[in-house]
Prior knowledge:
Elements: H1 29-51, H2 55-76, H3 91-112, H4 115-132, H5 138-149, H6 168-227
Amino acid sequence: MATRAPAPPPEYVPPAVDIPPVGGPVWVAWREGTLTRAAELEALCSWVLAQAPCQDGRVLATAIRRHLEAAREAARVVKLNPRRRFRMFRNGPLIERAVSNIDAAEAHLLNLAPPAYLVGQMPCLLRHVQCHLSPTDPRRQEFDAIAGRLGIRDPDHPGLGEPHAPDRAEREEVVHEERRTIVNIVRGASSAALREHVRLRSFRNVVVATTAFMSLLAIGVALTGILGPT
């Protein structure tokens, strides 16, 4: 009697994940970047939550989605709540709303992600901290020390990393112990970056206003000279 061949295993169907569309297109470059980054963080949040579902993780995931929705509202220029009349220039507040909410979502994601993910992000986070915190800042010095314990070497400071690089398990243990410190320092660097952007916009606005005023003054003087040569 012939034996029946075993049935092939059922095809794996990944679980459905509700990820909203990117949205747009919109007509300003920073708004497009905000929508793209929000979609990326939304996908990362869903992936991290699927890796380790827990009650605390769901709380952080809910907070992440709310921050991302606020960033998307800024990118889409949603009407003010409460509404204000004669509010024409909103670009500055919208940029700050989008950037600050994206930064908050990233901080929550670092708190939620497994240690292995955080270890992989450490070189980028180190660069972010070094770009926006001064070398004498205690937060940057603490972050440099943590990066050294992970064996991350800085080309400008060859002695930053440990002589013998730790293995994967040791790195994840260091990140697990120092997670709160890492997240707080990265959040501080993001806040410093936002303040730099606000100062740059303020300086730009002063230059534009001064240029416009001087141009009008020059035109007025020229018209006066034409109309009244004497």
